[in-house]
């Protein structure tokens, strides 16, 4: 069949290119509509956000993040971005366990309980108070993320008691560890 | 016996490439995202736009204005995560509020949806409507390149001094997307099919032929199938697939002949185009490629919402009717011109499916094939399409009568398009009378409620013919949930009826166009050979070819 003289025409290659676009759209649409019950869900930004804002209820997600270098890097960037205060890795490695970590925005101090019962006090001294109330101390140690819920802040100081096996103690003693407060 | 099975053919033609599971999972997650109160984060348009942008590989020209938006945001100190953790759905207004609440030195603002901003001496506008329309793409960018990398780009945008800087960052982001999508959205299968179709047209009309929609006619489609389907590696062995691809090719020609769409915009081709031009191109692209060119196909996408599997309280179309309508709507605007192809498809498509199934089970039905298609099959098929149309219309009327019995205000909206011109005027007059009796200002919703009540009270006088028709339809179409007011969840029942009526009303016209006053049918029925003679000739052609495809292994 030959076309009517007033009918718009195009070159074959243009038609071919447009066909590919429409066919790709159809493939996408059809594939999305298909039920995929067995696919393993990937971590997305929504998961990172949930873990950052409500870590108590997302421990499993935090563990998953820690086991995936790409997601860990994304999570670190998000935490840094959301943090009210940050304390990056310490500049020089210390040979002995530290009792203080000094930062530009806050200092951390670790004191053993005077009752020698294995408990430690982690003392956080904020250099400058912000409008937002700090809620969690996050730390990244050996590419693993963890957090501690903070007690209320009085005169720029918050104090948390932890057991001697708490991983925050190892993190505290590792100059490469990073701490965030949000 | 041939080793071909329907499932194998299906996998060969549909699932051998295309979007990866990873990409599909990401897109599904983005589409399912909700804000705190459960509303979807992205509008339907934003979700559709993401698919369109991915299919057209046109993300670069969307990323460019998005980068301008992010640049304004970054330069005003808004944290990047703010845009991905909004408590409201992404709209122009919510984006504007996000910017306005965060900026220390407010940017210029007009009409609440356009932000005026500047890079030192260069000023520019950011159309927040445009950004909101592509919010799902922004989320995909985040998931693909990650918060860490996107924040690095964001920090660069914070210090961008001019359009050139923004362009460079936009191109970098586009490249990241390109690298991801080249692995996760292969188009080799679509391109291979496109080449087959293109080459066939070129062989038929010449390499330099400028093609028009009417070049792709019934005879070209069947000739192509006859030529390629004997090849066991062909993507077009199944006549149904063959037709579907040629219909898409017609849509592609229609789109290409009526637009200024720039296929696969170069990553560097965006530097001097203004926002207005980008908006215009984007709008035209979307309308031409996917909306205008296949309006009936879009209606087809609504069909799923009234499938038996989707509806809870009522039943409208049966599963069989649903599938038959879906097959016809796939033709979109091209249905009337390709009516002979439709008749061939609905007549011989099922025969091929049975042959494939028999072949899969190591049986042959070739000897019994003659009994599958009667010489009047095409006339029967036309009658079935007419019947399908009448069923659709009748179901809409029966559903409308259910709303009337329930005294639902939704009845008025449903009834208006179903009434004839005289009764439509009478209904409007009732509205005018209610308005004229108002003594003071009144809430719009209250006014609608008053008009609805007045119309329901006077329906027997105002629209007697319509009511009679609706009542008759209800008697004829006794399907689940029609007619009887449910004892619980009346809201869902009403919503399903109201939505169902709207969708059914939109389905009826394209079906009607296929068989009513269709010049192709008139010609086929009045010319020589007659429709019956054509059916016999086609039966000989298809059956002979089926024997060649499946017979050698019998």
Overview of this structure, please?
The complex is a heterodimer of chains A (182) and B (554). By secondary structure, chain A is an alpha+beta fold. Chain A folds into two domains: 43-82, no CATH class; 83-181, Elongation Factor Tu (Ef-tu), domain 3. Chain A is 33% helix and 24% strand. Chain A has five helices and nine strands; from the N terminus they run βααααβββββββαβ. Chain A has helices spanning 12-33, 45-53, 59-66, 69-82, 167-173; strands at residues 10-11, 85-87, 100-101, 106-112, 120-126, 136-141, 144-149, 157-162, 178-181. By secondary structure, chain B is mostly helical. Chain B has three domains: 18-186, no CATH class; 188-260 and 270-294, no CATH class; 319-515, no CATH class. Helix content of chain B is 65%, strand content 4%. In chain B, α2 crosses α7, α7 crosses α8 (163-184) and α10 crosses α11 (239-257). The longest helix of chain B is centred in the C-terminal third of the chain and has 29 residues, at 377-405. Classes of the chains: A alpha+beta (182), B mainly alpha (554). The interface between A and B is large, with 49 and 71 residues.
């Amino acid at each position: 069949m030959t076309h009517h003289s007033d009918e718009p025409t195009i070159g074959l290659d243009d038609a071919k290119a447009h066909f590919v676009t429409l066919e790709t759209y159809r493939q996408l649409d059809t594939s999305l509509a298909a039920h995929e019950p067995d696919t393993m869900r990937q971590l997305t930004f929504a998961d990172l956000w949930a873990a950052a804002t409500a870590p108590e209820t997302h421990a499993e997600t935090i563990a998953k993040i820690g086991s995936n270098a790409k997601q860990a890097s994304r999570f670190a960037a998000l935490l840094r971005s959301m943090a009210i205060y940050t304390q990056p890795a310490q500049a020089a490695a210390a040979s002995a366990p530290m009792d203080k970590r000094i930062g530009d925005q806050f200092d951390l101090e670790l004191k053993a309980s005077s009752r020698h019962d294995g408990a430690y006090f982690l003392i956080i001294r904020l250099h400058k108070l912000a409008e937002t109330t700090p809620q969690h101390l996050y730390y990244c140690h050996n590419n693993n993320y963890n957090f501690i819920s903070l007690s209320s802040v009085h005169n720029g100081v918050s104090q948390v008691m932890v057991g001697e096996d708490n991983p925050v103690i190892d993190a505290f003693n590792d100059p490469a560890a990073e701490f965030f407060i949000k | 016996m041939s080793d071909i099975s329907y499932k194998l053919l299906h996998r060969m033609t549909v699932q051998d490439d295309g979007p990866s599971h990873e990409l599909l999972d990401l897109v599904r997650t983005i589409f399912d995202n909700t804000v705190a109160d459960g509303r979807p984060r992205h509008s339907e348009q934003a979700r559709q736009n993401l698919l369109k942008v991915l299919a057209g590989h046109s993300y670069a020209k969307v990323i460019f204005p998005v980068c301008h938006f992010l640049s304004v945001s970054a330069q005003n100190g808004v944290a990047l995560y703010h845009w991905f953790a909004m408590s409201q759905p992404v709209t122009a207004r919510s984006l504007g509020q996000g910017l306005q609440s965060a900026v220390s030195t407010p940017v210029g603002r007009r009409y609440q949806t356009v932000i005026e901003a500047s890079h030192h001496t260069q000023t520019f506008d950011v159309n927040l409507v445009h950004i909101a329309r592509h919010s799902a793409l922004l989320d995909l960018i985040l998931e693909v390149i990650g918060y860490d990398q996107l924040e690095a780009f964001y920090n660069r945008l914070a210090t961008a001094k001019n359009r050139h800087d923004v362009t460079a960052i936009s191109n970098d982001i586009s490249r990241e997307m390109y690298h991801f999508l080249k692995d996760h959205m292969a188009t080799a299968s679509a391109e291979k099919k496109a080449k087959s179709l293109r080459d066939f047209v070129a062989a038929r009309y010449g390499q330099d032929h400028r093609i028009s929609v009417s070049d792709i006619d019934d005879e070209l489609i069947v000739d192509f199938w006859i030529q390629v389907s004997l090849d066991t590696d062909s993507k077009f062995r199944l006549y149904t697939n063959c037709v579907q691809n040629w219909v898409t090719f017609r849509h592609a020609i229609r789109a290409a002949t009526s637009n200024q769409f720039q296929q696969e915009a170069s990553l560097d081709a965006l530097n001097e185009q203004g926002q207005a031009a980008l908006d215009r191109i984007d709008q035209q692209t979307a309308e031409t490629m996917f909306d205008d060119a296949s309006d009936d196909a879009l209606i087809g996408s609504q069909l799923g919402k009234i499938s038996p599997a989707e509806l809870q309280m009522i039943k409208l179309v049966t599963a069989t009717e649903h599938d038959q309508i879906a097959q016809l709507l796939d033709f979109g605007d091209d249905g009337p011109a390709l009516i002979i192809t439709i008749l061939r498809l609905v007549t011989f498509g099922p025969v091929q499916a049975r042959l494939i199934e028999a072949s899969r089970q190591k049986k042959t039905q070739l000897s019994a094939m003659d009994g599958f298609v009667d010489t009047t099959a095409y006339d029967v098929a036309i009658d079935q399409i007419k019947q399908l149309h009448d069923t659709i219309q009748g179901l809409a009327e029966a559903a409308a009568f259910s709303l009337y019995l329930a005294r639902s205000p939704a009845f008025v909206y449903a009834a208006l398009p179903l009434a004839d011109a005289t009764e439509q005027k009478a209904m409007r007059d009732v509205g005018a009378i209610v308005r004229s009796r108002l003594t003071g200002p009144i809430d719009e919703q209250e006014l609608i409620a008053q008009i609805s009540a007045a119309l329901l009270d006077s329906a027997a006088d105002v629209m007697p013919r319509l009511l009679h028709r609706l009542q008759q339809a209800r008697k004829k179409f006794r399907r689940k949930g029609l007619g009887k007011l449910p004892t619980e969840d009346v809201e869902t029942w009403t919503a399903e009826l109201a939505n169902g009526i709207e969708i059914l009303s939109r389905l009826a016209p394209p079906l009607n166009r296929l068989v009513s006053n269709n010049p192709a049918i008139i010609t086929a029925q009045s010319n020589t050979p007659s429709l019956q003679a054509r059916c016999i000739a086609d039966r000989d052609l298809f059956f002979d070819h089926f024997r060649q495809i499946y017979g050698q292994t019998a």
